[in-house]
Amino acid sequence: MENLKKDFDRLIMDYLSNNLTDDERIILKESLKDESNKKAFREKVQVYWTLQNVPVWKQLDDAAAWGSIQKRLYRRNRYIKLLLGYAALVVLALGSVLFFRYNSTVDDRLEIPAGVTLTLGDGKTVSLDEMGRQLYSADSILNIELKEEGKLVYTILKEKNSGEVDGGKVRYNTLTVPRGCNFLLQLSDGSKVWLNAESTLKYPERFEATNRAVELMGEGYFEVAKDSTAPFSVVTFGSKITVLGTSFNLKSYDNEPEIVTTLVTGCIRQSYENGDTVVLTPNIQAVYTKKNCSLLTQQINTVEALGWKNGRFIMKNRPLREIFLELARWYDVEVEYESSELQDVCYYLNTDRYENIQTVLDKLEKTNSLRFVLKGNKVVISK
User: Fold this and answer.
1) Contact between 343 and 383 (Cβ < 8 Å)
2) Lowest mean pLDDT, pick from 40-49, 102-111, 112-121
3) Mind listing the domains of the chain with CATH numbers?
4) Which end of the chain has less Cβ packing within 10 Å, N or C?
């Protein structure tokens, strides 16, 4: 039994470090059919997400990093003490890679989220409900493949001038992520985009030589591949972001009053329809209010803004109307307030996105006098 546990732990560590073979991935997937294994898997991966959020620099040694990790874990929850030993193994096994690469998130899962669709350049819509299959190949130039871990990857098979592709016509694809899931997309230039629930990204199958432009509705985290000859731009409701190579989060839902941009690394320039332009540096967030066209920039800790990408709901002193926009989008529920003023009551929430919604509601109820009752597909909030 002890050997089986060690084998299972090793599979998880290889999974987190992207070192699983195809056969090992199948074994791990089968193991996760057992509820106790699934629980252990989620707990250990959660420690890994916590490690990803520890702010360290290349000069920081493993001992100092581990001290920082311990402080964060002990503050979060007492039961995680039991997992510190495993976290230490992760530090030893992955070393600096763990801290200096931001490439493993909640989206790197073994199961593909249901309901994600891809609309191809010819108008055909494909449901991404199968793993490990080639979806589309055009003129032996581009290959679109759905990887086993639930990542959609675009690969250029043969370089040609843009005018040679479909007679110079740019073919656009649209990836649509419904409520209740996230999805990871790797574009043809190697840039990665993590899409949050209820989000849509429109992008060329293959970028032009001097321009890389995509359109976002919803929320996405971008890791942009560097290319000084072809700026990367993201267009959303009345706003445009231009970068050369960087990582940032953009939140721009049509049913929310603000466009929120958070820069993690690099530098971006963002312009708005009212003529305002702002240049962001790391750890700076721009909040643009659509109604009155006002722009605010502020220095922040990016952990909260990137919580969704790392498998957490992290909302500090936020009104219930904002909190439940996030929860409704993720759990696909409706929200009803006994009185409108309850929407302005502020709460703190820091919890696993993969917890049952009832567990999340119970946590909220324990921190205030309000009641949160789940009735079918509706959450009723009352005094």
Assistant:
1) no
2) 102-111
3) 2-100 (no CATH), 105-209 (no CATH), 212-310 (2.60.120.1440), 312-382 (3.55.50.30)
4) N
